Amino acid sequence: MDEILNLDLNDMAQTEFDCSCGKHHNFSIHDVAIGSGAINKLPEIAAPFKEGQILMVYDNNTYEAAGKQAHKLMVDAGFNVKELLFDRGDDILIPDESVVGRILQELSGPTPEDTRLIVGVGSGSINDSCKYVSFHCHLPYIIVGTAPSMDGYVSDGAPLMSAGRKISYPAHLAYGVIGDTNIMKDAPQELIAAGFGDVVGKITALADWDLAVKVKGDYRCDTCVTLVQRALDKCFSKSNLLPQRDEEAIKYLIEALTLTGVAMALIRISRPASGAEHMLSHYWEMDYVDRGLNPIHHGTQVGVATPVIARFFEELADILPEGTGALCPRHEEIEKLLRDGGAPVSPKEIGISRELFHNSLLKGYTVRPRYSVMEFAKEHGRLEEIADKITAELYD
Questions:
Q1: Which residues contact 385 (CB under 8 A, 6 or more apart)?
Q2: Strand locations in the chain (E)
Q3: Angle at 356 between CA 362 and CA 296, to 5 degrees
Q4: Beta partners for 25?
Q5: Distance between CA atoms of residues 166 and 210, nearest Å
Q6: Distance between CA atoms of 120 and 131, rounded to whole angstroms?
Q7: Least C-beta-crowded within 10 Å: which of 39, 207, 208, 356?
Q8: Top-level CATH class of 3-184?
Q9: What residues does CATH 3.40.50.1970 cover in the chain?
Q10: pLDDT tens-digit map of 253-300
Q11: What are the residues whose beta carbons fall under 8 Å from the beta carbon of 39, sequence distance 6 or more?
């Protein structure tokens, strides 16, 4: 029982066990390869699909980071590789209808039946788009990560933009996940900081989950909580070295992001990774896209949203269920953690306007049907009061 807690990350693939939470968990990813030189395992992991065509997807940035190397490895090993490169110049690739549709076009002809595997080379946008398309086309996919920027490499959800809204669509787990620390440590510093912000967000996500368990009777798996908390502790022990691109610190960051994904995959929900801090991030992102602006990196937004949500727990300490408030550190402690790890600390720092910020505190809980501390504040008639106070403290 709970055997996964005793396994190394690279040994967790194809694990199933009876959990102390009363459920049978199955982590069905076939291969996980995290470490120095891990990209060289791509042909071996893809070997079962060698007889068919492989569609390899990247953008102009991820092609340079790892796509060129991944393509050469596959071609040299005798694979038939078809390439799809999204050239967005200096703009961020947004995983929307146009990106998903373009991948589908490449699968639609002239001989779609020959495609046996999709290989995505990238991080959030590439991963989510390939995951979604492969799920609906009943194809396996492998993701070659290029940046430790988010936790979705081993999750089965695909957050995509649709008609201007951020929607998390059901998808499936990757067949294989490759995270080469030699590649990821050279990612742009802003992406490393974004990944760290996403990890910091798990602090309030776990507190939110506890609140939902105690107030609404939600299901919780304590094995997954332990898995995530151990990964956070390990990552935070070296996070002050992230700005120097310390290889061990980068490895711990990748492990934290990946293990959070494992926890989500085990229980098929994103509760171990996502709470009210993600709702604020999604609210801001939808506003930016609606105005035709490039959104800020998801993890960066999650990071700065985390001490904001910590303030909610502080303001509601007098009415929170017993023990819930103790799970969330003070906002000052979280801000120091972000700052020491080289990540932005406040929404004002990343350009979120006062009006957008205040509106997000009032309406962020409506972004998705998930109970959070913001909805708790609304139910107790204190949401507007807290939103006004936090906004004034951060912007006035």
A1: none
A2: 15-18, 24-27, 31-35, 53-59, 80-86, 115-122, 141-145, 157-162, 165-170, 176-180
A3: 120
A4: 17
A5: 25
A6: 9
A7: 356
A8: alpha beta
A9: 3-184
A10: 999 999 999 999 899 889 999 999 999 999 999 999 889 888 899 999
A11: 66, 69, 70, 73, 144, 178, 180, 183
Structure tokens at 374: 């913001």
Residue with tokens 């936790």: 151
Q: Which CATH number fits domain 189-218+271-395: 1.20.1090.10, 1.10.12.10, 1.10.10.60, 2.20.25.420?
A: 1.20.1090.10
Cα–Cα distance, 229 to 126 (Å, whole number): 28
Q: How many helical (H) and strand (E) elements, i.e. helices and strands, does the chain have?
A: 16, 10
Where does the chain hold its CATH 1.20.1090.10 domain(s)? 189-218+271-395
Name the token pair of 57: 């997807």
The one-character DSSP state at 212 is H
Q: Which residues contact 352 (CB under 8 A, 6 or more apart)?
A: 284, 304, 360
C-alpha neighbours within 13 Å on the C-beta side of residue 228: 31
Token pair of 188, please?
């742009």
Question: Tell me: the pLDDT tens digits for 320-335?
Answer: 999 999 999 999 999 9
pTM metric for this prediction: 0.89
Structure tokens at 245: 């691109």
Reading the block at residue 281, the tokens are 């991030």
